[in-house]
Amino acid sequence: MSISTTHVTLNNGKKMPLFGLGTWQSKPEEVKTAVRTALDAGYRLIDTAYNYLNEEAIGEALDEYFKSGKLKREDVFICTKLATIYTRPADVARSMSASLQKLKLSYVDLFLIHAPMACKVPDDPTNVFPVKDGKIDAEDRVDFEGVWKEMEKLVDEGKAKSIGISNFNAAQLERIRKVARVMPVTNQVECHAFFPQTKLETYMKKYNMTIMAYSPIGSPGRLSGPTSITDRTPTPVLLDDPVIAKLATKYNKSPAQILLRNLLQRRIIMIPKSVTPSRIQQNGNIFDFTLSDEDMAAVAGIDRGVRMFKAEMMSHLEDYPFSADV
Ligand SMILES: NC(=O)c1ccc[n+]([C@@H]2O[C@H](COP(=O)([O-])OP(=O)(O)OC[C@H]3O[C@@H](n4cnc5c(N)ncnc54)[C@H](OP(=O)(O)O)[C@@H]3O)[C@@H](O)[C@H]2O)c1
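# NAP complex -> structure
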Protein backbone atom coordinates (compact mmCIF):
# COMPACT_ATOMS: atom_id res chain seq x y z
CA MET A 1 0.00 0.00 0.00
CA SER A 2 1.27 3.48 -0.78
CA ILE A 3 -0.14 6.97 -0.90
CA SER A 4 -0.46 7.01 -4.68
CA THR A 5 -1.95 3.52 -5.07
CA THR A 6 -4.51 3.33 -2.26
CA HIS A 7 -8.00 3.68 -3.69
CA VAL A 8 -11.63 2.99 -2.98
CA THR A 9 -14.02 1.84 -5.67
CA LEU A 10 -17.03 4.14 -5.79
CA ASN A 11 -20.60 2.95 -6.35
CA ASN A 12 -20.27 3.85 -10.05
CA GLY A 13 -17.21 1.60 -10.43
CA LYS A 14 -14.72 4.46 -10.65
CA LYS A 15 -11.65 4.53 -8.44
CA MET A 16 -10.90 7.36 -6.05
CA PRO A 17 -7.75 7.87 -3.94
CA LEU A 18 -8.39 7.37 -0.22
CA PHE A 19 -6.00 10.14 0.69
CA GLY A 20 -5.74 13.71 -0.56
CA LEU A 21 -4.97 17.36 0.11
CA GLY A 22 -7.57 19.71 1.61
CA THR A 23 -7.36 23.38 0.65
CA TRP A 24 -9.95 25.30 2.70
CA GLN A 25 -8.25 28.48 4.01
CA SER A 26 -5.22 27.85 1.78
CA LYS A 27 -4.50 31.25 0.31
CA PRO A 28 -3.81 31.44 -3.43
CA GLU A 29 -0.18 32.41 -2.82
CA GLU A 30 0.33 29.39 -0.52
CA VAL A 31 -1.71 26.75 -2.28
CA LYS A 32 0.48 26.48 -5.37
CA THR A 33 3.44 25.29 -3.31
CA ALA A 34 1.11 23.06 -1.30
CA VAL A 35 -0.22 21.35 -4.43
CA ARG A 36 3.29 20.88 -5.88
CA THR A 37 4.59 19.50 -2.60
CA ALA A 38 1.62 17.16 -2.28
CA LEU A 39 1.92 15.80 -5.83
CA ASP A 40 5.68 15.32 -5.37
CA ALA A 41 4.92 13.40 -2.16
CA GLY A 42 2.55 11.07 -4.02
CA TYR A 43 -0.85 12.67 -3.25
CA ARG A 44 -3.24 12.06 -6.14
CA LEU A 45 -6.42 13.74 -4.80
CA ILE A 46 -6.95 17.49 -4.38
CA ASP A 47 -10.09 18.88 -2.74
CA THR A 48 -11.16 22.45 -3.41
CA ALA A 49 -14.39 24.44 -3.82
CA TYR A 50 -15.71 27.54 -5.54
CA ASN A 51 -16.12 28.93 -2.00
CA TYR A 52 -12.40 28.57 -1.18
CA LEU A 53 -11.49 31.24 -3.77
CA ASN A 54 -8.28 29.40 -4.61
CA GLU A 55 -9.27 27.33 -7.67
CA GLU A 56 -7.34 29.60 -10.00
CA ALA A 57 -4.03 29.11 -8.18
CA ILE A 58 -4.66 25.36 -7.96
CA GLY A 59 -5.34 25.34 -11.71
CA GLU A 60 -2.02 27.08 -12.35
CA ALA A 61 -0.12 24.58 -10.21
CA LEU A 62 -1.82 21.63 -11.95
CA ASP A 63 -1.20 23.09 -15.39
CA GLU A 64 2.51 23.53 -14.65
CA TYR A 65 2.70 20.00 -13.30
CA PHE A 66 0.99 18.47 -16.34
CA LYS A 67 3.10 20.53 -18.75
CA SER A 68 6.27 19.36 -17.00
CA GLY A 69 5.28 15.81 -17.97
CA LYS A 70 5.55 14.52 -14.38
CA LEU A 71 1.90 13.43 -14.37
CA LYS A 72 -0.98 13.25 -16.80
CA ARG A 73 -4.44 14.69 -16.15
CA GLU A 74 -5.88 11.21 -15.62
CA ASP A 75 -3.34 10.49 -12.87
CA VAL A 76 -4.89 13.08 -10.56
CA PHE A 77 -8.36 13.15 -8.98
CA ILE A 78 -9.78 16.66 -8.63
CA CYS A 79 -12.80 17.43 -6.49
CA THR A 80 -14.54 20.79 -6.40
CA LYS A 81 -17.95 21.96 -5.20
CA LEU A 82 -21.03 23.86 -6.26
CA ALA A 83 -20.95 27.42 -4.93
CA THR A 84 -23.31 27.93 -1.99
CA ILE A 85 -24.49 31.10 -3.79
CA TYR A 86 -25.42 28.97 -6.83
CA THR A 87 -27.27 26.08 -5.17
CA ARG A 88 -30.34 26.40 -7.32
CA PRO A 89 -31.11 24.58 -10.59
CA ALA A 90 -30.64 27.62 -12.85
CA ASP A 91 -27.13 28.28 -11.50
CA VAL A 92 -25.51 24.82 -11.38
CA ALA A 93 -24.07 24.93 -14.92
CA ARG A 94 -22.52 28.37 -14.40
CA SER A 95 -20.90 27.33 -11.13
CA MET A 96 -19.37 24.29 -12.87
CA SER A 97 -18.16 26.39 -15.82
CA ALA A 98 -16.60 28.97 -13.51
CA SER A 99 -14.74 26.24 -11.60
CA LEU A 100 -13.55 24.44 -14.75
CA GLN A 101 -12.29 27.68 -16.22
CA LYS A 102 -10.39 28.60 -13.06
CA LEU A 103 -8.97 25.10 -12.64
CA LYS A 104 -7.96 25.06 -16.36
CA LEU A 105 -9.61 21.66 -16.72
CA SER A 106 -12.16 20.20 -19.12
CA TYR A 107 -13.61 17.97 -16.38
CA VAL A 108 -13.41 17.34 -12.65
CA ASP A 109 -13.41 13.87 -11.20
CA LEU A 110 -15.93 14.77 -8.53
CA PHE A 111 -18.38 17.64 -8.17
CA LEU A 112 -20.22 17.99 -4.85
CA ILE A 113 -23.17 20.07 -3.69
CA HIS A 114 -21.18 21.93 -1.02
CA ALA A 115 -24.02 22.24 1.46
CA PRO A 116 -27.82 21.97 1.60
CA MET A 117 -27.93 25.74 1.51
CA ALA A 118 -28.90 28.15 -1.27
CA CYS A 119 -27.47 31.57 -0.41
CA LYS A 120 -28.93 34.61 -2.11
CA VAL A 121 -26.72 35.70 -5.00
CA PRO A 122 -24.72 38.67 -3.66
CA ASP A 123 -23.55 41.65 -5.71
CA ASP A 124 -20.00 40.43 -5.21
CA PRO A 125 -19.69 36.76 -6.31
CA THR A 126 -16.68 36.32 -4.00
CA ASN A 127 -18.95 37.00 -1.02
CA VAL A 128 -19.66 33.28 -0.72
CA PHE A 129 -21.52 33.44 2.61
CA PRO A 130 -23.67 36.59 2.39
CA VAL A 131 -24.96 37.58 5.83
CA LYS A 132 -28.03 39.68 6.69
CA ASP A 133 -29.00 40.70 10.23
CA GLY A 134 -26.37 38.37 11.67
CA LYS A 135 -27.65 35.30 9.80
CA ILE A 136 -26.79 33.59 6.52
CA ASP A 137 -28.87 35.22 3.79
CA ALA A 138 -30.30 32.14 2.07
CA GLU A 139 -33.50 30.59 0.78
CA ASP A 140 -35.48 28.78 3.44
CA ARG A 141 -35.60 25.60 1.38
CA VAL A 142 -33.25 24.14 -1.21
CA ASP A 143 -34.62 22.57 -4.39
CA PHE A 144 -32.52 19.42 -3.90
CA GLU A 145 -34.34 17.50 -6.59
CA GLY A 146 -33.96 20.25 -9.21
CA VAL A 147 -30.32 20.85 -8.34
CA TRP A 148 -29.57 17.13 -8.55
CA LYS A 149 -31.10 16.90 -12.05
CA GLU A 150 -28.68 19.64 -13.14
CA MET A 151 -25.75 17.86 -11.46
CA GLU A 152 -26.64 14.72 -13.46
CA LYS A 153 -26.50 16.71 -16.69
CA LEU A 154 -22.86 17.56 -15.88
CA VAL A 155 -22.10 13.83 -15.83
CA ASP A 156 -23.90 13.39 -19.17
CA GLU A 157 -21.81 16.22 -20.63
CA GLY A 158 -18.55 14.75 -19.29
CA LYS A 159 -17.83 17.80 -17.12
CA ALA A 160 -17.96 15.77 -13.89
CA LYS A 161 -16.99 12.09 -13.82
CA SER A 162 -18.82 11.57 -10.51
CA ILE A 163 -21.19 13.67 -8.43
CA GLY A 164 -21.96 13.78 -4.74
CA ILE A 165 -23.04 15.83 -1.76
CA SER A 166 -21.52 17.43 1.30
CA ASN A 167 -22.93 18.29 4.73
CA PHE A 168 -26.16 16.37 4.02
CA ASN A 169 -28.00 14.47 6.74
CA ALA A 170 -29.59 11.08 6.05
CA ALA A 171 -33.08 12.48 5.33
CA GLN A 172 -31.64 14.95 2.82
CA LEU A 173 -29.61 12.20 1.20
CA GLU A 174 -32.85 10.22 0.93
CA ARG A 175 -34.50 13.10 -0.98
CA ILE A 176 -31.70 12.96 -3.55
CA ARG A 177 -31.74 9.16 -3.73
CA LYS A 178 -35.47 9.13 -4.51
CA VAL A 179 -35.01 11.17 -7.71
CA ALA A 180 -31.50 10.12 -8.68
CA ARG A 181 -30.75 8.63 -12.08
CA VAL A 182 -27.05 9.04 -11.21
CA MET A 183 -26.39 8.15 -7.58
CA PRO A 184 -24.21 10.32 -5.33
CA VAL A 185 -20.89 8.55 -4.77
CA THR A 186 -20.02 10.21 -1.48
CA ASN A 187 -21.11 12.63 1.22
CA GLN A 188 -18.24 14.87 2.38
CA VAL A 189 -18.80 15.52 6.09
CA GLU A 190 -16.93 16.40 9.25
CA CYS A 191 -15.33 13.15 10.41
CA HIS A 192 -12.50 12.58 12.90
CA ALA A 193 -11.84 10.74 16.15
CA PHE A 194 -13.93 13.18 18.25
CA PHE A 195 -16.84 12.93 15.76
CA PRO A 196 -16.39 9.66 13.86
CA GLN A 197 -19.80 9.60 12.11
CA THR A 198 -20.34 5.89 12.66
CA LYS A 199 -24.15 6.10 12.32
CA LEU A 200 -24.00 8.04 9.06
CA GLU A 201 -21.30 5.65 7.84
CA THR A 202 -23.57 2.64 8.49
CA TYR A 203 -26.47 4.36 6.75
CA MET A 204 -24.40 5.30 3.71
CA LYS A 205 -22.89 1.82 3.39
CA LYS A 206 -26.37 0.52 2.54
CA TYR A 207 -26.04 2.42 -0.73
CA ASN A 208 -22.38 1.62 -1.22
CA MET A 209 -21.51 5.25 -0.55
CA THR A 210 -18.35 6.14 1.30
CA ILE A 211 -17.80 9.06 3.64
CA MET A 212 -15.24 11.66 2.56
CA ALA A 213 -13.86 13.00 5.84
CA TYR A 214 -13.27 16.70 6.23
CA SER A 215 -11.29 18.07 9.16
CA PRO A 216 -9.67 14.65 9.69
CA ILE A 217 -7.20 15.94 12.28
CA GLY A 218 -9.74 18.18 13.99
CA SER A 219 -9.27 21.38 11.98
CA PRO A 220 -6.99 23.16 14.46
CA GLY A 221 -7.03 26.28 12.26
CA ARG A 222 -10.81 26.55 11.93
CA LEU A 223 -11.34 29.42 14.35
CA SER A 224 -9.63 31.74 11.90
CA GLY A 225 -12.33 30.78 9.36
CA PRO A 226 -15.62 32.61 8.76
CA THR A 227 -17.86 32.92 11.82
CA SER A 228 -20.76 31.84 9.63
CA ILE A 229 -19.73 28.21 9.42
CA THR A 230 -17.61 27.32 12.44
CA ASP A 231 -18.64 27.15 16.05
CA ARG A 232 -16.61 29.72 17.99
CA THR A 233 -16.81 27.85 21.28
CA PRO A 234 -13.31 26.66 22.12
CA THR A 235 -13.36 22.85 22.12
CA PRO A 236 -10.73 20.34 23.24
CA VAL A 237 -7.98 20.11 20.66
CA LEU A 238 -8.00 16.69 19.03
CA LEU A 239 -4.26 16.79 18.29
CA ASP A 240 -3.63 17.24 22.07
CA ASP A 241 -5.81 14.34 23.19
CA PRO A 242 -3.89 12.16 25.69
CA VAL A 243 -4.99 8.84 24.12
CA ILE A 244 -3.69 10.03 20.74
CA ALA A 245 -0.48 11.33 22.34
CA LYS A 246 0.13 7.93 23.96
CA LEU A 247 -0.34 6.13 20.65
CA ALA A 248 1.93 8.63 18.91
CA THR A 249 4.71 7.73 21.36
CA LYS A 250 4.01 4.00 21.04
CA TYR A 251 4.18 4.00 17.20
CA ASN A 252 6.84 6.72 16.98
CA LYS A 253 4.50 8.82 14.82
CA SER A 254 2.90 12.26 15.25
CA PRO A 255 -0.65 12.69 16.63
CA ALA A 256 -1.79 13.75 13.13
CA GLN A 257 -0.40 10.54 11.66
CA ILE A 258 -2.24 8.42 14.26
CA LEU A 259 -5.54 10.17 13.46
CA LEU A 260 -5.08 9.79 9.71
CA ARG A 261 -4.00 6.16 9.98
CA ASN A 262 -7.15 5.48 12.01
CA LEU A 263 -9.31 6.81 9.14
CA LEU A 264 -7.25 4.90 6.59
CA GLN A 265 -7.91 1.63 8.45
CA ARG A 266 -11.62 2.54 8.53
CA ARG A 267 -11.34 2.90 4.72
CA ILE A 268 -12.65 6.47 4.89
CA ILE A 269 -11.50 8.98 2.27
CA MET A 270 -9.63 11.84 3.96
CA ILE A 271 -8.32 15.23 2.87
CA PRO A 272 -6.06 16.76 5.54
CA LYS A 273 -5.25 20.39 4.77
CA SER A 274 -1.84 21.94 5.15
CA VAL A 275 0.17 24.63 3.45
CA THR A 276 3.31 23.63 5.37
CA PRO A 277 5.53 21.41 3.19
CA SER A 278 6.91 19.36 6.12
CA ARG A 279 3.36 18.65 7.37
CA ILE A 280 2.12 17.76 3.89
CA GLN A 281 4.90 15.18 3.69
CA GLN A 282 4.37 13.98 7.26
CA ASN A 283 0.59 13.55 6.80
CA GLY A 284 1.14 11.39 3.73
CA ASN A 285 3.62 9.19 5.55
CA ILE A 286 1.10 6.80 7.14
CA PHE A 287 1.48 3.75 4.98
CA ASP A 288 4.32 2.06 6.88
CA PHE A 289 2.57 1.11 10.13
CA THR A 290 -0.68 -0.46 11.31
CA LEU A 291 -2.72 0.37 14.41
CA SER A 292 -3.60 -2.82 16.29
CA ASP A 293 -7.29 -3.70 16.81
CA GLU A 294 -6.90 -2.71 20.45
CA ASP A 295 -5.49 0.70 19.48
CA MET A 296 -8.22 1.24 16.86
CA ALA A 297 -10.70 0.60 19.69
CA ALA A 298 -8.84 3.09 21.91
CA VAL A 299 -9.25 5.79 19.23
CA ALA A 300 -12.95 4.88 18.87
CA GLY A 301 -13.21 5.40 22.63
CA ILE A 302 -12.48 9.14 22.44
CA ASP A 303 -15.64 9.88 20.41
CA ARG A 304 -17.29 12.97 21.97
CA GLY A 305 -20.28 13.09 19.65
CA VAL A 306 -19.92 16.85 19.22
CA ARG A 307 -19.48 18.48 15.85
CA MET A 308 -17.22 21.52 15.40
CA PHE A 309 -18.83 22.79 12.21
CA LYS A 310 -22.31 23.63 13.46
CA ALA A 311 -22.94 26.49 11.03
CA GLU A 312 -25.25 28.06 13.61
CA MET A 313 -25.77 31.12 11.43
CA MET A 314 -27.81 28.91 9.10
CA SER A 315 -29.80 27.18 11.84
CA HIS A 316 -32.86 29.38 11.08
CA LEU A 317 -33.24 27.70 7.67
CA GLU A 318 -35.71 24.88 7.11
CA ASP A 319 -33.02 22.76 5.44
CA TYR A 320 -30.43 23.26 8.20
CA PRO A 321 -28.80 19.80 8.22
CA PHE A 322 -27.30 19.48 11.68
CA SER A 323 -30.36 19.18 13.95
CA ALA A 324 -30.82 15.55 12.93
CA ASP A 325 -28.99 12.79 14.79
CA VAL A 326 -27.86 11.17 11.53
N1 LIG B 1 -17.32 20.33 2.70
C1 LIG B 1 -17.13 21.17 3.67
O1 LIG B 1 -18.05 21.88 4.12
C2 LIG B 1 -15.77 21.27 4.30
C3 LIG B 1 -15.62 21.89 5.56
C4 LIG B 1 -14.33 21.92 6.11
C5 LIG B 1 -13.26 21.37 5.41
N2 LIG B 1 -13.44 20.79 4.18
C6 LIG B 1 -12.32 20.20 3.39
O2 LIG B 1 -11.58 19.33 4.25
C7 LIG B 1 -10.23 19.78 4.32
C8 LIG B 1 -9.63 19.46 5.68
O3 LIG B 1 -10.36 20.05 6.74
P1 LIG B 1 -9.81 21.29 7.60
O4 LIG B 1 -8.95 22.13 6.77
O5 LIG B 1 -11.01 21.88 8.25
O6 LIG B 1 -9.01 20.60 8.79
P2 LIG B 1 -7.80 19.58 9.00
O7 LIG B 1 -7.29 19.05 7.73
O8 LIG B 1 -8.27 18.62 10.05
O9 LIG B 1 -6.72 20.52 9.69
C9 LIG B 1 -6.02 21.51 8.98
C10 LIG B 1 -5.21 22.34 9.96
O10 LIG B 1 -4.26 21.52 10.62
C11 LIG B 1 -2.94 22.03 10.44
N3 LIG B 1 -2.10 20.83 10.23
C12 LIG B 1 -2.03 20.08 9.11
N4 LIG B 1 -1.21 19.03 9.30
C13 LIG B 1 -0.73 19.11 10.55
C14 LIG B 1 0.15 18.32 11.32
N5 LIG B 1 0.74 17.23 10.81
N6 LIG B 1 0.41 18.70 12.61
C15 LIG B 1 -0.20 19.80 13.12
N7 LIG B 1 -1.04 20.60 12.46
C16 LIG B 1 -1.31 20.26 11.17
C17 LIG B 1 -3.02 22.95 9.25
O11 LIG B 1 -2.09 24.00 9.37
P3 LIG B 1 -1.12 24.52 8.17
O12 LIG B 1 -1.91 24.58 6.92
O13 LIG B 1 -0.71 25.86 8.67
O14 LIG B 1 0.02 23.54 8.11
C18 LIG B 1 -4.44 23.46 9.34
O15 LIG B 1 -4.53 24.56 10.25
C19 LIG B 1 -10.36 21.28 4.03
O16 LIG B 1 -9.15 21.89 3.77
C20 LIG B 1 -11.33 21.25 2.88
O17 LIG B 1 -10.69 20.83 1.69
C21 LIG B 1 -14.69 20.72 3.63
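# post-check
The CA atoms of residues 240 and 255 lie 8 Å apart.
The pocket of NAP is lined by residues 22-24, 47, 114-115, 166-167, 188, 214-222, 239, 254, 256, 271-276, 279, 282-283, 309 (CB under 6 Å).
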